[in-house]
């Protein structure tokens, strides 16, 4: 059988340099369309069952975040269901790993992928539940449906104006599928009628969810950008239907609803931690908001040991916020808490699981913990 490498499928990304010698398969990651970003890869190897293979991504040192390869293991699957990790070596030039496949076909990815097919099925599943509306906000540049879920009133007695308006968005950066796995945990928990915390939260809040902010980039196998090369988390200061309809349409809907809290879900290539970045640099920042941010993070760390408060990005200096970021833009516009969650591609150093690394299941469990944290925030019971 001929050994082959391919990536012509949803989310695929790789260029084949040479595949003739299984002991020296040479590959390169391709950059996003009309952009220099590159780091996401996803491809399959076939015809190599029982053959000792060595695969090298030769341009690893020329990717956007080369520090992401130190201590990184490759997400691997033969059934596209269970994803485990294959140890890899980064020699400051190439990322390489060896494998003797036990199956005819094996898939490798930067992180367990989240397909548009699963996205559509999950949206339909959630939209079928009581009190959930699936709103088509518009279309992407490639013509894909761009949808938002609205989890609304479910028999609570609060009038609309007294209810909190909570927004949650994921995957502005399409090569961060952990964000969409997080969404499964968040939504499944929110919509669990047997869970008293979820039911209580839903009586207090309208919740808007965009599980995939960048379906075009997701399908194209991009790391950071949409179909025209726009980095959506740098578009919030001046979005447009021509360049960044995904941001423009969400901002329009946010303007209708108002925003009392915003969660923007991401992955970080380099840091082996789960952490939240706040919006200390916005001009309407207050001591009370600072306490709220600290309390939210401490509460989350108490709820879920995979989350921590020690490591993360440096705090913004006062009045120095980059308003092209979602969280800063929303915090500045609505004067509300807006948190950017970052999850690792590698593993959590404090709570490691070398067999699976930071995994879809762990992302979902963290998403579920956010239901508790947000409920405690809304009822003024965060840890001090
Ligand atoms: Zn990101």
Question: How are the SSEs ordered, and which strands pair?
Answer:
Blueprint: E1 4-6, E2 15-18, E3 25-28, E4 42-46, E5 53-57, E6 73-77, E7 84-87, E8 89-90, E9 95-99, E10 105-109, H1 116-127, E11 132-139, E12 145-151, E13 164-170, H2 178-190, H3 196-204, E14 205-210, H4 215-220, H5 245-257, E15 261-268, E16 275-277, H6 287-303, H7 326-334, E17 338-344, H8 360-378
Parallel strand pairs: 3-5, 13-14, 13-15, 15-17
Antiparallel strand pairs: 1-4, 2-3, 4-10, 5-9, 6-7, 6-10, 8-9, 11-12, 12-14, 16-17
The structure holds zinc ion (ZN).
3D structure, described in words:
This protein is an alpha+beta fold and 384 residues long. 26% of the residues lie in helices and 23% in strands. It is built from eight helices and 17 strands. The chain has helices at residues 116-127, 178-190, 196-204, 215-220, 245-257, 287-303, 326-334, 360-378, and strands at residues 4-6, 15-18, 25-28, 42-46, 53-57, 73-77, 84-87, 89-90, 95-99, 105-109, 132-139, 145-151, 164-170, 205-210, 261-268, 275-277, 338-344. The strands form three sheets. A seven-stranded mixed beta sheet has the order 11-12-14-13-15-17-16, sandwiched between helices. It is globular and about 65 Å long. The chain starts with a strand and ends in a 6-residue tail after the last helix. The model has no long low-confidence stretch (mean pLDDT 97). Bound molecules: zinc ion (ZN). Zinc ion is lined by residues 173, 176, 266.
């Amino acid at each position: 059988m001929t050994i082959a490498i391919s990536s012509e499928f949803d989310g695929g990304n790789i260029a084949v340099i040479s595949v003739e010698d299984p002991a020296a398969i040479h590959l390169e990651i391709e950059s996003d369309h009309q952009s220099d970003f590159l780091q996401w890869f996803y491809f399959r190897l076939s015809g190599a069952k029982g053959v000792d293979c060595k695969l090298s991504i030769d341009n690893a040192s020329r990717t956007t975040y080369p520090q992401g390869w130190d201590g990184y293991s490759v997400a691997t699957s033969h059934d596209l269901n269970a994803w485990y990790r294959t140890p890899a070596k980064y020699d400051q030039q190439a990322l390489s790993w060896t494998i003797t496949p036990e199956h005819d076909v094996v898939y490798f990815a930067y992180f367990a992928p989240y397909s548009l097919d699963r996205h559509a099925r999950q949206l339909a599943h959630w939209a079928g539940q009581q009190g959930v509306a699936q709103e088509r906000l518009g279309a992407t540049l490639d013509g894909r449906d761009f949808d938002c879920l609205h989890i609304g009133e479910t028999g609570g007695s609060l009038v609309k104006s007294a209810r909190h308006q909570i927004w949650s968005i994921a995957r502005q950066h399409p090569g961060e599928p952990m964000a969409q796995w997080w969404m499964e945990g968040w939504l499944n928990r929110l919509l669990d009628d047997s869970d008293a915390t979820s039911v209580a939260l839903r009586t207090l809040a309208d919740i808007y969810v965009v599980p995939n902010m960048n379906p075009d980039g997701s399908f194209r196998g991009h790391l950071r950008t949409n179909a025209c090369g726009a980095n959506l988390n740098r578009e919030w200061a001046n979005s447009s239907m021509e360049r960044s309809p995904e941001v423009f349409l969400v901002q329009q809907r946010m303007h209708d609803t108002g925003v009392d809290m915003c969660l923007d879900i991401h992955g970080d290539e380099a840091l082996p931690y789960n952490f939240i970045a706040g919006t200390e640099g916005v001009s309407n920042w207050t001591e009370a908001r600072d306490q709220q941010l600290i309390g939210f993070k401490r509460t989350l760390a108490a709820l879920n040991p995979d989350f921590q408060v020690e490591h993360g990005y440096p705090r913004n200096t006062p009045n120095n916020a980059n308003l092209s970021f979602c969280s800063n833009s929303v915090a500045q516009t609505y004067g509300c808490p807006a948190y950017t969650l970052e999850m690792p591609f590698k593993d959590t150093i404090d709570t490691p699981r070398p067999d699976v690394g930071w995994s879809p299941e762990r992302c979902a469990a963290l998403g579920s913990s956010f239901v508790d944290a947000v409920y405690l925030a809304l009822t003024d019971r965060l840890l001090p």
